[in-house]
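Hello forum,

I keep getting stuck at the same step: I have a sequence, I want structure tokens, and every attempt I make locally crashes halfway through. Rather than fight my setup again tonight, could one of you with a working pipeline run this one for me? It's a single chain of 442 residues.
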Amino acid sequence: MKKTLIFSALLFALQGGPACLTAFGYDPSLLKELLSDVGSWNSMRAGNPSRAIDLDKANLEDAGLDNADLSNASMARAQFNGASLNGANLQNAKLLFAKLKRSKLKNAHLNGANLSGADLKNSYAKGANFNGANLTRADFRFANLEGANLAETDLQNSRFFEANLSRTDLRGANLTGAKLLRQAKLTGALISNNTILPSGERATSLWASLNEANYSEETEKAPVAMKSELFPIHTTSRAAAIPESEAAGIEKSPETLLLQDVTEWNSLRKDNPGMKTDFVDEDLDDADLEGADLKEITMVSSTMNGAKLDQADFSGSDLTGTSWKRASLKETVFRQANLQGSNFERAFMINADLSNADLSGAELHGARLQGAKLNKANLSNTNLYDTNLAGADLRGANLTGARLIDTIFDNALFSADTIMPSGEKASRTWAVLKGARFVNEQ
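Reply #2:
Ran it on my machine without issues. Output:
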């Protein structure tokens, strides 16, 4: 009897019953229908306007969905990377955390849609209508939004590094905490007194003028405040909407210069050795800062996940609580830097120089530190699980309380003043057991 019930349940699943829906998270026949013929799909929707469309977590990468009717559909966490959605109807669609990287959204209708946490990096959304959409924490880095309608949208904590926002309608939009100033192009954008700036203040004609945007006065009304149910809203601590250097007539702020041209940034630092620039709580994920001069700089609590920082110099910098997950840090210099509580999970740090650096409490799970200089570094209470330290110099390093599960020490260099996790000094016997080298120097 038990075998018969199991067989019946399996057969029901293969025939597309509820068990099949559980396996996919959506009805695969619905996805097949959409991908087969957009014209037929639109006819089906017109004939069944009340039919619920559930495509949560569906894979629609590189799909051709121009002019498709996906209004009111639930597509949370769906994959649309590289998909063509030009002219598509996505009104009031649920697209939380959806992946839309490199997607084509020219003239698409997204008004009223929920795109909280969506990834739209490198998307082409020229002329798209986002009116009234929830775009909290959406990622628009490198996106082309020229001429798009962003009026009355909730853009709190969204990211616009190198985005094209020229001629966009931002009247009544809430940009509190948004990363807007780093090379986001606002030429000809429409700003009003009801636009809320990243600082949390209302836009002014001066702010619009400095960004080459157009300004208009509108009837007083409450600002957009559609706080996301999923994210707490954080207001940026940077009070000025425009960096003082830009307001004074300098072509680029130091922050913009760093992200746009590392060579020019390095020249500026060379010519101004006393220049102090803070990047506290900054988002530098995926930035290309190879070879950047960042000596004695403050970057507390900033994120550089996935960034390319090979041969950059952070000597003497305060990098407390920074995140470098999966970052490329080959031959990067961190001499005497403060890296307390930083996260280097699976970072590529071959031949990096961390001598005399404070890495206490740091996360180094899966990091590749072959040949790294860690002499006299403070590695107390660090997580070195699955970390590769082959050939690394650990003479005089402090490993008190460090977690060394599956840590690779092949040919690493220890000395009599290296402190082990137990708090005792390293010994030749311990080093040999780990496949490391040992010297007696103090």
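Residues 1-23, 222-251 have pLDDT under 50 and may be disordered. If your local run keeps crashing, start a new thread with the error log.
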